[in-house]
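# step 3/5: fold
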Amino acid sequence: MIENNICLLTDSYKLTHHYFYPKGTEKIYSYLESRVGAEFNKTIFYGLQYIIKKYLEGPVVNPQKIEEASELISSHIGEDIFNEEGWYYILDKYEGYLPIEIKSVAEGTPVNVGNVLMTVENTDKKSFWLVNYLESLLLQVWYPSTVATLSAEVRKLANFYLDVTGSCKDNMDFMLHDFGYRGSSSTESSMLSGSAHLLSFSGTDTIAALTIPKNYYNDSNLYGFSVQATEHSIMTSLGNDGEFEQILNVINNAKNGILSVVIDSYNYRNFLTEAGKSNTHLNKAINDFLDIDGNKIVFRPDSGDPVSTTIDCLNILEEGFGSYLTDKGYKVFDSNIGLLWGDGLNYHKIRDILFAMKSNGWAAENIVFGMGGGLHTSVNRDTQRNAFKCSAQLRNNKWFDIYKNPLDSSKKSKTGRFKLIKEDNSFKTVAIDSYGEDYLRPVFRNGELLIEDTFGDIKSRTLKYSNFLVR
């Protein structure tokens, strides 16, 4: 089968809709929003340019795709279902370029939930059916947008606790590390979610995500970095009795820079006590490594209750390596010692850990976090309540505003055609003929990408939001 056949990139039931719309239909106008009631009160819009460049840009329709789709749908649903005539019309009149206009807010922009993020409208009245045919594909922007939102909210949280504990912010860009490649549903999803994370942070082990800025956002800069680190296959190589021998082997062979060491293969308390005990071989090796300028060791417990284990580890490390106070009276290690928690994290657990550290007198700069499944796979379309709905239809040269209003009023849709304006420094969705600058920009029309943002531009917009401190 042909890869990325645009004729098949939809839900099965949508293949039947071209003959269900009222007679005289000329245009369909639909929009995307994050509904009120989402987990976070703003959504960082991100990923549309990727979808456009990968699936929509250029001549995406050809005879082979139409014929393949027609044959498949005849068996899948039934004869005379597939809109072969409509697709050949696009092929013959537009040489396979899609007669669609997409407008959206600039990627990386935080928009209050309940506002329009994107609109879609056909540019040829014979292709009215195409707008909501593309819903299934375009709505997948929910995924990178939601991950971008999650990472931005974690950065805001980290920024707050760094500030209130008087912490140094030099390591802010690395306070949340992406551990999610192995937990992703596919390499493509890991690339998208991994790149969304890089809008707020620079730490990642998802190498595939590093290709997105260059390949889809016209940006050759490198936005993600990692460090040398152990895992349990390394630390358990010589068994329980040989654990300290093996960590000496690791430290003696480590390159200069940051070294992350997993410490819970057997008993993290014994490990940290031995590491901090004066005149042991391990303590000497650690201090010799740390004496080299720029070197740092980060200790990583990987099991147990996140909050209590974190506090326990901080206390044991203090006994061995000491601490001093920030200007706000919170304990902090020398900058070459730190703790990493990367097991089973989500936004709420990170918040709980940071709150517990503050409550126990610890500065936030002592810790960094690693999130895998919590970043890549614990989100879904309902996290930010993303929905794509038709709100207006042109029939016989007259616009009709339409909407849904179910008994569940939280799912009531918007009606009409829209602008996204700013009022009192907050976004507001208004009627298309209302006064005010429209922040929805035409980004795609008739097969052409009209605006090509760089990844750096999008990251800058995101950081303006995630670096903001809420008092």
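# step 4/5: annotate
The mean pLDDT is 96.
# step 5/5: archive (pending)
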